[in-house]
Write a structure and sequence with these properties.
Layout: H1 3-13, H2 20-32, E1 36-39, H3 46-57, E2 61-65, H4 72-75, E3 77-79, H5 81-90, H6 98-105, E4 111-113, H7 115-121, E5 127-131, H8 138-150, E6 152-155, E7 159-162, E8 168-173, H9 181-185, E9 188-191, H10 197-207, H11 213-228, H12 237-249, H13 257-263, H14 271-284
Parallel strand pairs: 1-8, 1-9, 2-5, 5-8
Antiparallel strand pairs: 3-4, 6-7
Helix pairs in contact: 1-2, 10-11, 10-12
Amino acid sequence: MDNMQIMKGKMLQAGYICDDKVATVLYLAGAMQKPILVEGPAGVGKTAIAQAFSLVTELPLIRLQCYEGLDEAKALYEWNYKRQLLHIQAVSNKNLSVQQIEEDIFLDNFLLTRPLLKSITSDSPTVLLIDEIDKVDFEFEAMLLELLSEFQITIPEIGTVRARHQPFVFLTSNATRELSEALKRRCLYLYLDFPPKEMEQQILMLKIPNLPPSLAEKVAQVVRQLRRLELKKPPSIAESIDWAAALLWLGKEDLDVETTLQTLTTVVKYREDQEKLERIIYRDRDLNFRT
């Protein structure tokens, strides 16, 4: 069995079904010690790759959730100003010079580590997930380049902090904006789309072991048709799993028109999308979703 097949088997044990392309990228990332940039629409399982890989390698997962306005203090580090102030007050009567006080207060024990710094100062290897990198600005993205290429972080008051153990790095992007060439150059690239019907059926049966294969096939088929419509938010894989689980809880063995209308809120999360689908289904009385 080659390395890719071994990787696929291990990911399956961790609850993630991947194809040869994904398994190859995961293997090469470890062999070449390169970060992985995982890009694709929301809900295709980008975050789940890092979570499953953490289980496969039995390494702790450190997650940085990106958002607009994220700065170094929340991602890298910040100084514990209250503790520094207390220290200054405590030594104020010792006639120390300003330089001596500064040397005291800019030590590791006054440093608050955030996810990025924590990932390279950990006593053991880690899996670092930088989730939705496309939500931050170019300045923050540029700040990441030192970490992604040299696996080190420069702190002005201390100097360069090099990784004790190089983390496995995953960056995810929903492709809401174009990322810089400098960042992409430092990463292996993996594009994920919604899975084909057969793979989604396998995912449903993996996540819900007692789900009948016929119902799993029908849910996968209908969800695939839903994603082809111009909805405000196409159903994610997690929502198709929720839908299948809901049908099982309701004792349904098939997915017909009436059952779909009753459970539509499980998989479609915007009112305008629900109204659009209800109109189509009531009009056609089938699940082909002809528009």
